[in-house]
Write a structure and sequence with these properties.
Layout lengths: L2 E7 L5 E7 L11 H31 L42 H4 L14 H8 L8 E7 L4 E9 L9 E4 L10 H8 L5 E4 L20 H14 L8 E4 L4 H11 L6 E4 L12 H4 L7 H4 L5 H8 L7 H13 L2 H12 L2 H12 L6 E6 L7 H11 L2 E5 L6 H4 L1 H10 L1
Parallel strand pairs: 5-6, 5-7, 7-8, 8-9, 9-10
Antiparallel strand pairs: 1-2, 3-4, 4-6
Helix pairs in contact: 3-10, 4-15, 5-6, 6-12, 9-10
Amino acid sequence: MAFLISLSSGPPGSCRTRICMSEGSEATDGMSKRERREQLAREREERIREKRRKRLEELAEREGTAPMGTAPVQDNQSEPAEGMAMPKGNYGEDASGLFGWVNQNPSSKNAVYMPAFKGDGGNTGEMVRQIRGRGKTGEGMEVTIKMPKTELQIYVRKVGTQKSNLAPIVLVHGLLANSWCYKELLDELEKTDREAYAFDFPGCGYSTWPQPGVGFSFTQEAITEVFEKVLSSLELEAREPIVVTQGYIHNQYINLWATKNPDRISKLVLLNQPLSPKSKLPFVLQQYRLPLVAPFVAQDAVRAERFLEGGGPYQMTIDDAARYREPFLESMMPGLGLIDAMKNIDFNANLQQVVDGAAKMKDKVAIVWGSSDKYLDISEGREFSQLSGAKFREIDNAGFMVQSDWPSRVADFLREL
């Protein structure tokens, strides 16, 4: 009788030894190879059920709710089909079937499991079902805008009521974000009934996700036109709103629009964003320009939340992360839109134009800067302030997403304007 002895890696400091009988041998416990295989499969499935049961009980205890129903366990993959048998199957810790390599790689073995996610079986479809539409809150509404070759549904969040002596506030997000990044700031402004709006650009959040090149392209002209038509749909263009921008790319186009149309706004408020012609794109964004890499990173559903969280000192909540993840789980179009947007912008030329234009706006520009930004140095904000004469407000213990890290202080600054 022949034996094969193999060593497989486990937790640090441990080693597991597996002894397998060769194909021509018989089991020593009186069981045939097929019976032994079936027994191992049943034991494995029982372990899966037990782990799921404990996970659901833990969630129920944490949230004070009844345990969720468990998803059915996948049928035994070790059963033969048309004379073909898979001794181990394609999933689980010891997957070694035809597609077992999906699990047997360093990335999968080192993946972080998020126990607070109520995803039952843990697949993508269940994740989408659990988070779909959760960001559509009471202040949300949709407006339709007509572009030259298509119509777009734009999702808008609105708080407060119109006041004749106060300019409305319009909040503009950047790439990989959406209007949810202003949710906490909107909540703060609502406390004093201040009229404010935040909307999702096409390809972001709950707005239309157009296919690039098919009726819509993510160019400076198109993004600017969307902004103008949103203002028109909300009847804000004649009211000279306070425009607040943050992030990369989309917001930069609106900055340039504001410098060319200073008579159409009350103030341009710049939150953390590149403000120097010498600024460099974070590597995360540069990858959307790489020919072979871009198609892969564009479909990474957790890339947006990691980028936004990585710019500051705080960990993003699971609910917030789901709002940025949702579009990429639902469709490939948001990712293709990112590639198109990065292809179309002349990053440093845009920044130079904004610097030159802001210098002519006198007292219409203000800057709020989170000093703990890990992407952008505070010197960019200070130098821009000196060149343009813009009012500068530093907020400590806040990072790239300053409006989320300390929304009350940003809201206080906006009320002062």
